[in-house]
Amino acid sequence: MTALDQPVTRTAYQQSVADYWNAEKDPVNLRLGDVDGLYHHHYGLGDYDPAVLDTPEDRRDQAIIDEMHRLETAQADVLLDHLGPIGPRDRLLDAGCGRGGTSVMAHQRFGCQVDGISISEQQVGFANEHVRQRGIDGSVRYHLKNMLDTGFESGVFQGIWNNESTMYVDLHELFAEHARQLKPGGRYVTITGCYNDVTGGRSRAVSQIDQHYICNIHARGDYFKALSDNGFVPITVVDLTAATIPYWELREKSSVATGVEKPFLTAYREGSFHYLLIAADRV
What are residue 75's phi and psi, to 5 degrees? Predict the structure, then answer.
């Protein structure tokens, strides 16, 4: 069977991940997306404006929400900055697209076709309805697909990214599929949390993050080995850890805090967890 006639989820674990995101209606994603219609499923970068904390009480919470959304949109901009030259005739793949915010931003920036994939039927339906309302559904499309075996043709994408979605899959399988789909010389970018293998295995805080999101955070070194084994050459590696801590500090003060803020801040501050951007070319 091909990816087109196999079930989207292939294992009990993948089905549990799909079930989790099908049921998810977390305000930390939805309220932030309501600010301007860009619905993200990732964290933020950069310093927040401390003035939001001094906003009068009746407007303070919305000011914090607005600022958190600005930081998460800035994170997506940083990822897109590293895709290299993209023209309107190129095609991009958002692997693990969530509700599709970064795909919309990519189309707005480059004017090209963007495909997003998720194993969550709820996310795909939400994202497709959103681009239909924006009138860009002819250029941005979301598909219920497994990122380890998408069924897309080989060598059709100029760029592929994972924005905080690699921790749900085996990296060797993922990068093999990405290498198949990318054109020679195409660019792959990921922003991801990874545990610091210099300090040993997963810390307690990292394990708490895994448990919260039912994911399996990889070691930092695993990314570079799996990329190399599948014909990718990293060209840019940026440690974004310090740049993401302000987002988490602000989120901890917000009405949409989920309780996972403390493990993130502990893991980042103690050095057991890193927030990395990796850009690599397919050779």
Answer: -65, -45
Q: Residue 273 contacts by C-beta under 8 Å, 6 or more apart in sequence?
A: 193, 194, 195, 196, 203, 205, 206, 209, 217, 241, 264, 267
Please name the residue that has the structure tokens 């963007």: 114
Query: Looking at residue 108, what is its pLDDT?
Result: 98
Please say whether the beta carbons of 9 and 119 come within 8 A: yes
Q: Which residues of the chain have pLDDT under 50?
A: 1-4
pLDDT given for residue 2 in this prediction: 45
Residue 105 · residue 131 · CB < 8 Å = no
Q: Would you call 276 helix, strand, or coil by DSSP?
A: strand
109 touches 82 (CB < 8 A): no
**Tokens standing for 3?**
């990816």
3-state helix, strand, coil in the chain (%, to 5): 45, 20, 35
Q: How much is the pLDDT for 91?
A: 98
The answer to whether the beta carbons of residues 113 and 12 sit under 8 Å apart is no
107-120 confidence digits (pLDDT tens): 999 999 999 999 99
The type of residue at 99 is R
- What is the per-residue pLDDT across 156-181, written as a single tens digit (0 to 9) for each? 999 999 999 999 999 999 999 999 99
